[in-house]
Amino acid sequence: MHDTVKSFQIREIVCIVCPNGCRIRCAQTPDGLQCSGQKCKRGVDYAAAELTHPMRSLTTSVKTAFPDSPVVSVRTDGEIEKAKLIDVAKALGQVIVEHRVKIGDIIAKDICGTGVNIICTSDRLMHP
Known about the structure:
This protein has a 5-stranded mixed beta sheet with strand order 8-5-6-10-9, with no helix packed on it. A 3-stranded antiparallel beta sheet has the order 1-2-3. It is an alpha+beta fold. The chain contains 2 helices and 10 strands. It has 2 domains: 10-52; 59-120, CPE0013-like (CPE0013-like fold).
């Protein structure tokens, strides 16, 4: 009987959950995901999520119809799948804010079917 040694790809992830910035080394083994280098359990949870289903917040700007402020800053009100970032950014390129808004106002609901809204992060459009 011959033993087969299977090599597993090792990935290093810098954890962003807390200020420690741990460098977590992860490898998928027959027993599951094995991680080392983290200083807390949150690091393992972050690494597992990052390797299996990465999510991101998006901060950008959108066009407005106002000459005194041609763009306004916006962000997602939750995280979206990393794979959908480009689709969301393209959709936001088509958005034009045509009414005065303030911080927290929804600019686009359920952007690209993600269940996440795009909200305003500036009061610069309230009133000139």
